[in-house]
Amino acid sequence: MKALLIPMLASRFSRLPLSLLCASALHSWAADAPAAPASDAQAKPAETTTQQTEQISVTGRQLSDNKLRQQSTASRIIVGKEEIARFGDSSVADVLKRLPGVTVGGPPGRRGGQISMRGMASYTQILINGEPMARGFSLDSLSPELIERIEIMRSPLAEHSAQAVAGTINIVLREDARKRTTDVSLSASQTDGHKLQPRIGLQHSDKAGQLSYTFSGNLQRYDQQESASRSVQRQYDSTGALTSEQWRASERQSRGYSLHLAPRLGWRYGEGDTLNLQLFAMHSQDVDTGETTLTQPLGVAPYDTAQARSDNRFDMVRLNLNRQMPLGELGKLTLRLGGDYNRNSSEETRIESQLGQPDARNLDHTLNREAGLSSSGKWSLPLGDGHSLDLGYDIDQKRRREERVQIGFSDSSTLDPASNTRARTLRTAFYAQDEWDIAPQWALYGGLRWEQISQRSEGGTASLDSRSAVWSPTLQGVWRLDEGKKDQLRLGLSRTYRAPRPADLLDRVVLAENNDEFSPDVRGNPALKPELSWGLEMAYERYLSQSGMLSANLFARQIEDVIRRVKRLGADGRWLSQPINLDSARAYGMELEAKFQLAELMDDAPPLDFRANVGRYWSEVSGVPGPDNRLDGQAELSLNLGVDYRLRALPLTVGGNVNWVPEYAVQSTAEERKQTGRKRVIDLYALWRFSPDARLRVSAGNLGHLDSYSASESRYNGRVSSSESWQRSWTSWTATLELKY
Questions:
Q1: What pLDDT does residue 488 have?
Q2: Cα separations in angstroms, 7 against 14, 150, 540, 671
Q3: Which of 246, 329, 343, 612 is the most exposed place for a label (fewest CB within 10 A)?
């Protein structure tokens, strides 16, 4: 494997230093207090020795994000509460787009964009408190106020699932505070003249003896134009003559609200002996309405106008019980028992009209319910100074039921029985991981995980039983070039995978509203195999005198049995899309990151903080002709530039960030090619501190509001079909009052 990956990197980056990134660790410090003088009652005669009792005061101080990253053996980037709250974002997806190596698809500021590491959305693992997200849950709905920190892991850890070919984003919810605190945030945002969107957040933490508790909650209401787009589709015959042209103009409004609750209870039995109960609950409900106008200069238009209404509701509850017990010289034992339930329903009605008269009515009703139980355990065994071994397991069982009714999509206009499905998934894993500080300059992390996924699905007359198991070794090392750990080299080698989705395995058909090359029916493939990948990471890091750091990271992935959807025209005249396994793919790239205060580089410098990250990515899919035979959705480049300025004369901090992704093209199959336009997002903020307990944050997101462009072209049987789409984006203005009590 090394013989394949290392020459590939060397050919691209022979003039660059090695690279990789890191983080996570905890630290405490103790300070000796001056000796207390003896009281008069305790004083002895002069000829005797005076005895004094030495008092030692021990306090805890949490390390900075950079310090955690610097001291970690395994590679991890930590993003703390201060950076998360910097721009006053209403969604965690807006926070992620500024982080190293992370991009968000879709028009800026709009919901539903795919979150990608290194441009590989389908290969990115997203966890909440170390567990996979619930089906149907969107990060667009999660408020940053509920988040304690975000961890970005470019190389996998054995204690997490190895379904992380591109990497893992772990979102950690608010934890127990060290003292009594009450934080309240009141926000109002507006998007280019739309209605005002209010949001309120609350967090309260306190202790009572051995009991500690934290309550976090957030309520948001929105009523705004969700999208406005125009598109054109053209078809040409084998001679190149234009046979059909359709122009569409669409608008969609969204009105609804979301509620998040994240209470946490903790009980402390003794030193290192704790019991924690964490609840995460969410309820969201919205109504989307839209209208589409169709103009067809060539050919016969199926309709003139179409009105659509969608009523959506999502409910989720996740409960975890964690127990940590010290075992003396045998280390400690951590056990977790969890349960979750989520319900996602959607009912969409679409009425198509011709010359003002209703001509067709389509109904698509979907109800998804999923319930699960999970358990995990980890035994941490110390093997000596700076050496520890962890042994653990994960068991997670899910039961899912989907009920779907589609009326008006086919001549029969009846329920398709294959749309009602039941699925059961059992994921079992065992792992071992060893972390060892071999010498002051050397440290190693090694892990091995065995993970098996068993699935049973039933839909109408179709049923499926599948099982796949994968061994996932990982090895990471850090070499500290000096005693102060300011310069570090990192190296990582790992095996990861991506399992097919249950829906992609089930041999059933889901019908499309207006079936064509761009909107085909969808069918699963029971013969799909998991994608397996070997990955290599190399990094160089330099930490500056205060909170600054510079890093360069190189990576490579060799992926086998790549899954790609292909289309064909059936005998019934309908287009059908189905996933298949292709041969293999290679992905590799370079990521640079810098953040520092100008005072770290210059004397008498103004109070400026700089942040920058850039990623350059390449990929090649075997079996697909080039050029641009890249992984689906992978941009060639992503760039973030940010700066903060703290005024010396006023309690004011201002800052901004530019996010830029250039246009790129992807040859998906031999017959299909896609193009995505450039993205440029400019965000600004100002923070005024009235007092240590009161602050006002004002921000402007997506200044310049560049519209989003996409295009695709397909060639089947001599016919050429092309599609272009332009989606409008808006500037959003937000004011947030932050109070502490």
A1: 95
A2: 10, 33, 19, 32
A3: 329
Two tokens at 253? 């409004």
Does the pLDDT value for residue 287 go beyond 80?
A: yes
Query: Among candidates 505, 504, 522, which has minimal Cα distance to 513?
Result: 522
- The alpha carbon dihedral of 89, 93, 98, 104 has a sign of negative
Cα–Cα distance, 653 to 608 (Å, whole number)? 10
Amino acid at 249: A
Q: Classify the C-alpha dihedral 484-490-494-498 as positive or negative.
A: positive
Give Cβ neighbours of residue 128 (< 8 Å, ≥ 6 apart): 170, 171, 173, 280, 318
Q: DSSP code of 123?
A: G
Rg (CA), the chain: 28
Q: What is the pLDDT of residues 253-271, one digit of tens each?
A: 999 999 999 999 999 999 8
Tell me the average pLDDT across 117-124.
92
The SS3 assignment for 168 reads: strand
The C-alpha atoms of residue 175 and residue 643 are separated, in whole angstroms, by 29
Residue at token pair 């693992």: 125
Contacts of 415 (CB under 8 A, 6+ apart): 405, 406, 407
Torsions phi, psi of 600, nearest 5?
Answer: -75, -15
Q: What is the pLDDT of residues 198-230, one digit of tens each?
A: 999 999 999 988 999 999 999 999 888 888 999
Say what the pLDDT of residue 437 is: 93
In degrees, to the nearest 5, what angle opens at C-alpha 665 toward C-alphas 661 and 669? Answer: 140
User: Which residues lie closer than 8 Å to 697 by C-beta, 6 or more apart?
Assistant: 85, 88, 685, 686, 687, 688, 734, 735, 736, 738
Bridge partner list, 629:
none
Q: Highest-confidence range of 229-238, 345-354, 513-522, 656-665, by mean pLDDT?
A: 656-665
Q: Which stretch of 110-114, 160-164, 421-425, 474-478 has the lowest confidence by average pLDDT?
A: 110-114
The values of phi and psi at residue 98, to 5°, are -95, -5
Those residues with Cβ within 8 angstroms of residue 238's Cβ, 6 or more apart along the chain or in another chain: 718, 719
Closest CA to 131 of 354, 361, 411, 337: 337
Residue 163 backbone phi and psi in degrees, to 5: -80, 65
DSSP reduced 3-state for 663: coil
Enumerate residues 6+ apart whose C-beta is below 8 A from 241.
none
Collapsed DSSP state (helix, strand, coil) of residue 302: coil
**Phi/psi at 607 (5° precision):** -75, 75
341 Cβ neighbours under 8 A, 6+ residues apart: 316, 317, 369, 370, 371, 372
DSSP-derived secondary structure for 5-51: HHHHHHHHHTTS--B---------EEEEPPPPPPPGGGPPPTTSPPP
- Would you say 448 and 158 are in contact if contact means Cβ atoms under 8 Å apart? yes
**Distance, first Cα to last Cα, the chain:** 57
What are the beta bridge partners of residue 523?
509
**How many Å apart are CA 492 and CA 269, to the nearest integer?**
39
Query: Mean pLDDT across the stretch 449-472?
Result: 85
Q: For residue 274, what are its two tokens? A: 């704790």
Beta bridge partners of 497: 532
Residue 123, CA distances (Å) to 192, 301, 499 in order? 35, 39, 10
Q: List Cα–Cα distances, 623 to 321, 619, 628, 641, in angstroms.
A: 48, 13, 13, 37
Residue of 700, 600, 717, 713 lying closest to 665 (CA atoms): 713
